[in-house]
Every structure is written in C-alpha cells, then in structure tokens.
Amino acid sequence: MEMIAGEENPKLAFYFFNCYTLCSFAINMIAMKFPTPGQPVRGSKSGQPIMALFDLLGRSWAMGVIWHLSAGPSTFRKLQEYCETISPTTLNKRLKELTKAGFIERTIEGYALTAQGEELYNMLNPLGLWAREWAKNFK
After folding, report:
1. Are 76 and 86 in contact (CB under 8 A)?
2. What does the pLDDT read at residue 139?
3. I want to staple 73 with a disulfide (CB 3.0 to 4.6 A). Which of 28, 44, 83, 112 is the partner?
4. Crossing angle of helices 62-69/115-135, nearest 10°?
5. What is the pLDDT of residue 126?
C-alpha cells in the first residue's frame, strides 16, 4: 500500500503543502500581470487585442466594477459594499488595472467610468441581455 507523505512524516507533508502554496502563488502572480495587447496574455500567445481585453475583464470583479460605475461615480467603500466578498487588496488592484486600461478614472466624487469605459459598458450591456436569454436553456 502506498503511503501519503503526511502519514509517515507530518513535517514532510507540511513542507510539500507550503511548496505547493508558494508555487501556486508565484504562478498566479506571473499569470496576472497587466494584459497588454501585442504581448502574450491568457488564451493568446500573440496578445490579440480582444484576448487582452477578455483577460482583463475576466478577472474577479472587473466587470462588476464597470457595471456598478455605469450608474455613476462611486467611492471605494461603496464599491466594496457592492462587490460584497471582494478584499480591499483585490478591489484596489482591479481599480488600478481598469484605470491603467483607460476605463475608469478617479474624480472628486470617487471612481467613474471614462468615455471609453462608458463605450465598453454600452457594448457589454447587450451581451449581458443576450446571456440572460442564453441562460434560460439551462433551467
């Protein structure tokens, strides 16, 4: 019968767990660099612009932030309440990425969509409506 590392030596199991955790963290940090068109991104070695956009929008709460800001400017605290389970670190990272992409900006009233951000929302909204109809196929 095969032994699992932890059955024979709990310290060895702890070591393997920590190595796995650190490797996973490092891989995620490398994979989560800012998606730049023309550079390799998730799903595209050539960095096609649409794939860079999908990489950015596919990150946790990126589209949620855009959806919320489509109703008007919002403070960090309001965004955090809207996103419910988001950590302050993740929200801050998303805001920086969306700002770097040119979709949001910091204003006196808080964060707001830029003209380009509003244009993106206006293109995504019909896709969201289509997705609701598509989802009915699974009920």
Report:
1. no
2. 82
3. 112
4. 110
5. 94
Q: What is the rounded CA–CA span in Å between residue 124 and residue 63?
A: 9
Give the E-state strand segments of 1-139 in sequence order: 104-107, 110-113
Contacts of 96 (CB under 8 A, 6+ apart): none
CA proximity to 82, closest of 94, 95, 67: 67
Share of the chain above pLDDT 70, in %: 77
E-strand ranges in 37-109 read 104-107
The one-letter code for the residue type at 84 is: E
Q: Which two tokens stand for residue 49?
A: 């612009």
Domain ranges across the chain: 1-31, 42-138
What are the CA-CA distances from residue 52 to residues 94, 96, 118 (Å)? Answer: 15, 16, 18
Whole-model pTM? Answer: 0.75
Is pLDDT above 70 for 124? yes
Helix/strand/coil for 60: coil
Whether the CB-CB separation of 61 and 94 falls below 8 Å is answered with: yes
Evaluate whether the domain defined by 42-138 bears CATH number 3.90.1150.10.
no
